[in-house]
Amino acid sequence: MAESVKSNVRSHCVGTTAVVYASDYLNKLTGERIERECKKQLDSGARALVIDFSDTELVNSIGISILLGIIDIAEKGGALVVFSDVNNETVQLFEMLGLTRHVVLAANEQEALTSLSAPPTQSQAIGH
Amino acid sequence: MKHRRNQQERQILGRVKHGEFIGRTSELERLVAHATKANSPALANGAQGLLILMAPLAGVSELLRQTFDSLFSRREEVIPIYFALPAAETTAVSAAIEFLNTFLLQYIAYRRDEPGLCHASLTLNDLLKLAPAADVEWIEELLEAYNQQRFGEDDRALVRFCLNAPARSFPRDARPFVMFDAVQLGAYADSAVPFALEIVRALKSGGNPFVLAGLRREVLDAMALAGGNLEAHEIMRVGQLGEEDARNLVSSTARRQQVSITEETRDLLVQQLECSPFFINAMLQAAGDKRLPLDSYLACERLYVDELMGGRLNRYFSSVLEHIAPQPQIRAAVVRLLCEATPQGKRSASVESWRKRLKLDSVAVEQLLESLHIHELVNCDGETIDVSGGSNLWRDYLKSRFRLDALREPRALVVADVIADALKRAPQTIAHHYRRAASLPLRELLGKFNSQRVPRSLFDFAAFAENYKGAPLDEVAAGLDEQTELMRLPQVVHTASGVSFSAALRQFGEESTVVAHAFGAGVYTNQNEVVWLVAKLESKLEADAALVGRWLDLLDAVARQSGIVKTQMWLIANEGFSIEASELLRERKAYGSSRQQFDLLIGRLSENSNVTQPADNEDEFQLIFPMGTDNEMLAASAVEQVARRLSFTPEAINQIKTAVVEACINASEHSLSPDRKIYQRFQVQNDRLVITISSRGILPTNITGNGEGEPGPEVESKPQKSDDRRGWGLKLIQTLMDEVEFERVDEGTSLRMTKYLRH
Fold it and tell me: Mean pLDDT in chain B?
């Protein structure tokens, strides 16, 4: 399980699932870095993405728009996306902006990976 | 050698203290250096005269008075003499006698080292009594000769005698340096004595360095009349102040006049008064006299209209007009001619048509036009008259005068209309200024091309985005350094705003387009000649193909109209270009760059601070921080600390932080802010926290005060276009906070958000 820290975005692969870690503040700059990393993982053959928000304290609206873009790209490539370890406040924000309709939420990375090994439907949120 | 002003310099003729004399430091140093040529052997065949060619209302009198004070304080051999032609004197003879008196007064004041004498009212005989022993003899001779001339019949000889007084022999340790302020020379145009000619001749024949200052067109005419060779004299051109100096002048004069201003009104005054020291002083003196604070656009415009219709500005323009056309009927006809031409879009008229309308003979019309031309209120080449000259203030004055005098409209109506027009114009004036200030330095960058080699990807957004989108800056820089595909930029030999080539580009602003004539490889052949057509596109998101297509067509049309054969188009959009737009750019062989690429290019071609201000009271906190990467997080951290003190729940604190972050992003994204700062104020009240986020700049057009026009926060179906995914900020803030309101301010935005405590 090789871990990459290039572009300041931490990520690693578990089988065909790429786990990408969001930073403490998700804005335009850090969002684009995650987007770039996700694209790279999908181009490398990843079939599912877990974006882990365990370090993320705050997400702004531009960051959310970039997350929607990542979901788009994954959908087009037939890949699944799970957000893990999102704090309550951020979940509220995602709900406000309708993001939770388009992505699965998991309590933590492990749960996300488990859910992907026996995937539920995309609209079914787990955890929280 | 630079002259450093002595802090102990005495304020003698200067009307402002040395430290408050703003914007003409280099000119002052040059004048002092010129004066000291009296001690230089170079004077024998060097340039003895310094001609100050002043743009109307640029102001030179204070510069000359400050030079006088500086030279007086130095106590060297050079004796400064400053004489301003009085506006009130009506004949050349009386003005010349006044000159003689002033000359002797200032000479003796200097010799006795008694600056106070310069302000005394003394007769020539009084002056003789005060003269130091070394000077008594020549002054006595001078006055004797003067008395003989005075009772003669020859006015011209008397004028010549008086003006030539500084050319007499002086004691070895004294050499006069005459600074002749001829701004009012036009007032003597009808004098029986050719006054301008006599002044120039007297100064030239004196053998001492001198300064002749006046309206540039008038001084040049006077020199030509006197058969003077301009090349024999130094020329100093004095225009309006630079913007920074003008801002300093407004602040300094406001302080001196005890007039309260804000940064916003300061900038408005600078722009509206066109950086003219005369107008700035006039307005602030008026405000000081009336004890009026100028702390809002409305206050400024009210005073402006008062001044224009009955105050200092009115008096100035009226006196110019009365001088140009002393007869009321002719004056009214001139106002009508100047006003009528403008609304019809006519910029020029024939001299013959003016002659017919004014019912004057050719000589009289010529004189009148000459006066208007000298004041740069029209441009006249002898056959046609271009009436588009003069400042905006002059045009406002003319318009109001025309409505009052010619159309006989009620004064109250005219006043109300002028105030309303000025108020409507104020934000546009400031917006134009900010756009100019915030625009990319396109012309400067093109000037630095100079055949240098740079990575090709800096001109190809698609290739750049593929490699570097979202990459850290050091990675981008390293990647560019390693890039082997380089392009050699041309050598740019001339740049101009696209507006100079096509009126169709005016709508985008002067700074948005540039036409740059260049040669590839720095080889000046037809084959290598290429014209770069560069445009900065307004687009918050990636520019799409439709926008790019429109711009390429427009630039193509400009090239065709201008007969430009070989072109290279380069479009710059802040966020770069969509995939389709990038394809179109490639098809049309045009370059496309994002702001980031542009900045990187600047870096390759050439080689912020947090301020916490003390609060007004202990329950209020202020934070000012620069717009920029992640700085909104500083604001969020600060508000978190404040909210904790009030015992907000963690959930509420996070909501407040998110709202503050969004407000800061909005402020950064929406305004062309001149200072690039966000002002944040937290007010702690019993049951609530009130946060105000404001920034200076242009009020965004999509913000109506209630958030209308933005999509709702809840996205029912996932928006497909990236455009639809932006603009959620305001709705998000409204959802997270209990009360949100925009405060109308003169410029920029001020968003007030309240969160109530709920335990």
Answer: 84
- Among chain B residues, CA nearest to A33: B470
Q: Please, what is the Cα angle at B568 between B563 and B574, to 5 degrees?
A: 125
The predicted complex's ipTM stands at 0.82
Q: What is the pLDDT of residues B549-591, one digit of tens each?
A: 999 999 999 999 989 989 999 999 988 999 999 999 999 999 9
Residue B344: burial class (beta carbons within 10 Å; 0-12, 13-18, 19+) = exposed
Lowest average pLDDT, out of A41-45, B485-489, B612-616, B670-674, goes to B612-616
Where residue B605 falls (left for φ over 0; alpha for ψ -120 to 50; beta otherwise) is: alpha
| Cβ neighbours, 10 Å, residue B293 | 14
- Of the candidates B469, B665, B715, the beta carbon closest to that of A60 is on B665
Question: B123-132: long-range contacts at Cβ-Cβ below 8 A with a sequence spacing of 24 or more?
Answer: B124/B100, B127/B101, B132/B108
Across the interface, do B636 and A99 touch by the CB < 8 Å criterion?
no
How buried is residue B529: exposed, middle or buried, by Cβ count under 10 Å (0-12/13-18/19+)?
middle
Residues of A in contact with B664 (CB under 8 A): none
Q: Which two tokens stand for residue B54?
A: 């002043």
- Token code pair at residue B205: 């024949």
- In whole angstroms, what is the distance from residue B319 CA to residue B315 CA? 6
Whole-model pTM: value is: 0.67
Instruction: Give contacts of A68 with chain B, Cβ < 8 Å.
Output: 718-719, 725
Distances, alpha carbon A116 to alpha carbons A55, A105, A112, B99, in Å: 22, 11, 6, 99
For B346-404, the pLDDT digits (tens) are 567 888 888 888 888 888 899 899 889 999 988 888 788 888 778 889 989 999 999 99
SS3 category, B173: coil
Q: Is residue B677 helix, strand or coil?
A: strand
B718·A62 Cβ contact <8 A: no
Chain B interface includes A73 (CB < 8 A): no
